[in-house]
Amino acid sequence: MRWGIHTIEDYHAETHGPLPVFYDKLIARAVLAEELGYEGFWITEHHFHWFGGAHANPLVALSAIAARTRKLRLGTAVTLLPYWHPLKVAEEFACLDNLSNGRLDLGVGRGFFKIEYDGLGVPMSESRPRFDESLEVIRRAWTEHELTYKGQFWEFEDVELVPKPVQKPHPPIWMAATVTPESFVNIGKLGWPIMIVPYIAPSVSALGEKVQLYFDAFREAGHRHKPEVLAFFMVYVTDDVDNLRALIAARIRAYGVVNEEPERKMRGARDPSQYAHFENLLEKMQYFNYDSLHGGDKALFGTPQHCAEIIRLWQREVGITYTTIMPS
User: Fold this and answer.
1) pTM of the predicted model, to two decimals?
2) Nearest-angstrom CA–CA distance, 245 and 290
3) In angstroms, rounded to a whole number, what is the distance separating the alpha carbons of residues 110 and 133?
4) Are 298 and 292 in contact (CB under 8 A)?
């Protein structure tokens, strides 16, 4: 099992303090993660709300962390490709790979908050084709001397990306899948490692069935390397199990409320052809609570022994190979 730290902050000024202090603590957490032997530190990308919006550009924080660490791998979980020009993504993260001497893990996804698409002026109905086109451009820009490309959204001729990444043929590319079955299949076909979020799944078995789609597509595509499955867990380790609910139930609900905010601000509906499985997301978020997470084995709450049992369950039933944790 590989281990990492994951950060998707629900920033509250009254509890986190001023943003400069918040950032200092974020970097200190990464330094401590390296000292404790964690493999990677992963930062998410969100915009226009406080569910992850405090680090709207993971590249900035990861660059600061790169300067304070030597071995810790630096991951995005995830960079939302439809929002950006792919050549900018390719060159900026190639710079980070050089700055860190080859420690970049690029996690990519489409995103599902409509207020982010609307705020950035990107049609949400174009999310999947934009994502697919961006991923192709990034991979080719990293590996080809000069790139000529003509697609639906971007067109350029004889572009030489400088610098190229340190890692060859390119840094690891991880792809996120949440609820849409097609995403699991597509990632398997491409042969990339996959990132999943247990706490939003209906159950261990339900997410296991979707990850099996990834494994099946991976094998059918003829890939010979080992498939990797990264799972992100909320965690609170304590021997005081009698008071566990009292210790963390309110924190979990507060986190869920911040997660709901961009849904409440959404104007109009997501494109049903690409986001059908995200219908009634606010309604589903009502199940984001202590009982659902702890009782459903979807979080690491309790004694070290209990948390280890949950990890073994997900290894056995889902096939995870990499665990990232977000301390509660």
Assistant:
1) 0.94
2) 7
3) 12
4) yes
